[in-house]
Amino acid sequence: MSDRIIKRKIISIVVCGMIFLAVWLFFFIRINSRYGQIKDEVYKNGETFNLNGVDYTYKGTQYCKGADVENMVDMAKMGMRSDDIIVITELEATNSSDESKMVLFDDKSLEKDRCIAASVDMQIYYAMNEVGIEYNIDAGETVNVKIPYRFTTDDFTDNEKNSIENVPFKLVTSLYPVKKSIDITRVAGE
Question: Cys-Cys link to 181, which of 41, 117, 130, 170 (CB 3.0-4.6 A)?
Answer without folding.
Answer: 170
